[in-house]
Amino acid sequence: MHPVIYYTIIFAAVISTCHGTPINSPNNCGYDACNLGQPDKLNVHIVPHTHDDVGWLKTVDQYYYGARNDIQHAAVQFILDSVIQALLENPDRRFIYVEIAFFWRWWLQQTEEMQNTVRQLVNQGRLEFVSGGWSMNDEGVTHYNSIIDQHGLGAEFLRDQFGECGRPKLGWQIDPFGHSRQVASLFAHMGFDGLFFGRVDLQDYAERNKTKQMEMLWKGSSNLGEESWLFTGIIPRTYTPPESFCFDVFCDDEPIKDDPQLHDYNVPERVQAFMNAAHDQATGYATNHIMMTMGSDFQYENANQWYKNLDKLIRYVNAQQVNGSDVNIFYSTPTCYLYALNKVNRTWTTKTDDFFPVSLNPHGILTGYFTSRPALKRYERYSNNILQVTRQLNAFSNITLRNAIFPLSEAMGIAQHHDAVSGTEKQHVANDYAQRLSQGIDSALYVINEAYKKLLSKENQSLPVPTQYLCQFSNISECLPIEGQDSFTLTIWNPTIQSIENIIRVPVTKKYTIQSPTGETIAADFVSISLPIKNIPGQTSSAQYELLFGTQIPALGFNTYYFEAKADATIEEKSTIRVTQNEACVLQNEHLRLEFDDRGNLNSITNRDKNITLPFSAQGLYWYTSFQGNNSLPEFQSSGAYFFRPLTPNPLPVSNSRNITCTYADQVQKALIIYNEWACQEIRIYDGARITEIEWIVGPIPIEDGIGKEIIVRYDTDIQSDGTFYTDANGREVLERKRDYRPSWNYTVYESVSGNYYPIPSRIWIKDNQRQLTILTDRSEGGSSMHDGSIELMVHRRTLYDDSLGVGEPMNETAYGKGLVVCGKHFLLLEPPESSAFYHRNIAQHLFMSPMGTYALPNVSYANYSKIYRQTWSALTESLPYNVHLLTFDQSSSKVFLVRVEHYFELNEDETFSNAVQFDLQILFNRLGRIAELVELTLGGNLPLNEMKRLVWITNHNESSHWKSTDPNFLTSTVVTLSPMEIKTFQVTLQ
Ligand SMILES: *[C@@H]1O[C@H](CO)[C@@H](O)[C@H](O)[C@H]1NC(C)=O
Ligand SMILES: *[C@@H]1O[C@H](CO)[C@@H](O)[C@H](O)[C@H]1NC(C)=O
Ligand SMILES: [Zn+2]
Q: Where does the signal peptide begin and end (predicted)?
């Protein structure tokens, strides 16, 4: 297979000029193309739009083509065909488009003539792209790395095809199930001037409508100041038209019947109804401009039906102005509406917290999706890990195979959609997302192999580099390619810019000696693989043991370890491994001490360096009973894919008795705690580790009793947390949460548990003066602190009823004919508050960019292997600061790279590392060449930063959002300064 052949067509239509020349028309897009209404009228911006889910009830392919219309009638290709024709018929008409995953497919199928026609519409501001990500990403469970990537992917396509007129100017997040401050900050750094969305908590909505605060200035970061502020508007009715004004083929509303000769003539009635709707909507908004979203899910397949009625509506409503009507209506776009608000020259209230969680009815709170489909959530995060590693390998080996990475980038862009990683899609669609990621990884593996052909070969050696295998089931101790082999290699790439110490676990059928890259024999533990792992359905490995050994992988580089089966199987067993059953036990290394009683309770964790102890009154697996109702009224709301609604606020222990097995080896000490046949946890401390690893295995969750169950891991301590806990947003900045409280309105509690759940994409903590317990996750989970001193994380759920938001299926995943078994990890850090960030910030970066191992079967002796192949390599010849992370390292063409570097500490978190940091970007390129040109770009990578001009907004405290970037004088220097939480994006051109 030669995947590269398939993928070179993908951006084949790329035009080298960034500014597509308009045909016969003035370049009049963006704010220049806006109708700003009339100062003394109520100006109604009519915004025709379609909301095209990149998969939900149907797969993205089915939606594009209009397949399986029996599930849902929806066909994106015809929407775009139809809208373009309708726009050509009347130059006043406007349309916005959002999801580039769809638009890109359509574009590749158009003739050059049609493409030019569309370019003209874009250049005249008649067709406008908003947001412009590959999908409309979820905001709760997504990771910032992938949000940036998916926006970058769409932005790159739009820039290449449409130039400046195709550059989106605002975020359009009308459907996601809550809104993240981190996303607002990222959008501000993409150069967006505003953000509109449709879903907020119903209590929040009512209050804002009453006080005319539907629009505000959101301070997106507590670290980055004005540059992170984003004007934010809540649109009414989520994103649908006012009642009785839906003219789509999906709707039954009356058309405008404007022949006065006919009995059904309805113009006066329709005009009056519209003016009433406009005035009603205007009560919640602060200016004499309002926006009406004329469209909904997959609408405009017959665009003519919409536009013909809207043309008439506009004509007849405005005709009443001569009779004194104050309503002025016209075709517009969200961008023009935003610009009109900006021109109103008023001040705006501000917001500093976020929009989580969102309740749609008093008992329907969108917190179930924080955990729904935990395996897909992990697979998505893992796929990103591979994507970033592959980009680095592609760049450092200079093989310019970016096109072969595209399938994984694309699959990741699709996976960010608010019905993808969120877990709110139908089962067959979830399967499709996973398959796309899997195929993307296959293609990435081709790139990984091509890269290692160069990186592993020593100069003057022409022997082929053996094929590298990714062992994607390593998490369940399975790696079939090496099973039973007499020798194999493991090459591990470290994608971070600091060297990393790791314990590696390799599933094996027999004993091996391990040679380090420098030829020493490495001491390893030979430990049995636990029964709960062996029992996971689909685990087909015959390996009964795993080898554990310590490694140190160089920064941005690799090490290769060589494994050779021990010739003499009678070699002495290592006698140091000790196992106890159902006895009290103590796991201990130089930094940590964990005490368990003989009934499997974790009694305490001690940080021996800091001399602090955390007693646990309880720790382990519990379950909530899912509420089962018919959804006919809020009180009958079921728990399901979107909503988490427990029957009672008190979770039950998964089991009252447990079995505990403690194992003491050199590299690891661990306690396996088995609750029953479907739930266990293994608590480990590795040699030298400062964090405790808790692996949980849950499933098949039993439902034979007819009861849905939502499983949590709970940690009950004596920390005096005073109703307060801390949760991250998209893996980055952390927000303070208070139980039963919302910072921006007077909160009435209807659901005491679900209303306190927040998305935990990477970490949650509680603290008192001496101790902070931070728990990091390996994927997004829902979590909370329901009692002082307690943290809980929901790891898996299985419900038996649909929750009535459209998906039409219960959240009931199965595999191998049984309820799905899921495993994952929590990482516990116990530190004083002042030293916590130093560790958890760094650990979190290493979790989403983990070392990536590939196995190979070289069929040569170690002596020969070390002669022929390079066994260690680093891209760095100098070290880089601890508080800098390399987020993106992507080769665009042989001499051009897109690089993102970030400061990953917040202000005032760490005495040393919460300060600004400076380093020379050249260090990243020392192996590749000298930097000839450096251009700082917006976060999306589609505009030089010095060309970014954002609209200025004033707060009601007279603060101005005006922000001037420090003048980048880059041609003279490659030294970069980053302040806390800053991400900088560069286009780097080498000599
Ligand atoms: C805002 O509140 C007013 C008064 O209660 C109501 O008439 C109007 O429909 C509300 N607006 C929206 C968009 O919900
Ligand atoms: C905007 O408002 C400020 C203060 O409210 C006023 O000083 C200024 O002249 C106004 N600008 C315009 C263009 O109306
Ligand atoms: Zn949607």
A: 1-20
